[in-house]
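hey so i finaly got around to running the thing on Type II secretion system protein H from Acidovorax benzenivorans. pasting the sequence first so u can double check i didnt mess up the copy paste, my clipboard has been acting weird all day
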Amino acid sequence: MTMHAYRSRLHQAQGFTLIELLVTIAMAAILASLAAPSVRDFIVRSKLTNLGGEFTASVLKARNEAVNRNTCVTMCMSSSAGGVAPACTTSGTDWQVGWIAFLNPSCDSGASAPADSVDMLLARPTTGSDYLLQTQDSKKKFLFNARGAPGLSSAGQFNIVYQDVSNPLNDKFSINICMDGLGRTRTIPSDKTCAGYK
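ok and heres what it spat out for the 3d tokens, dont ask me to read them lol
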């Protein structure tokens, strides 16, 4: 083997130079900075959609249980601070604090907690205040009858928004949920109202 061939093979076996490594790191940083807004958008959209999905699924469960068991079911905003059993709350407009659904065999509209722990159907705890599920009609409680209808007075609109209301992501990903007098829900764009959107 000639000296030239030996040096050529030795040169090929070496690793990256410092310049090559710095250029690679700089390119990775640029690509990461370009991807960051997309990742943030995905997280916000996902959390808003999940919150809406949880709420509509809870409404559906309460309706179905009322029909299947041929009894009344109450669903309400809950308060469970300090390790106390969850119960309906009478303050606030943000369902993000959590909600509960329980069997209400006496169909008592004033009931604020299940008579027995076995009557509790679901208890959704609060998960922080980054995302809000706000009622626009001061609805804090629904009483589903044995036909699964909460009554015409329970129809209302709920807005799901990102806590930072000045954030442009609100306009992009916020949604509204409409509930009619039969307990059916539908999702509409955030800049629309339930009454005006068909």
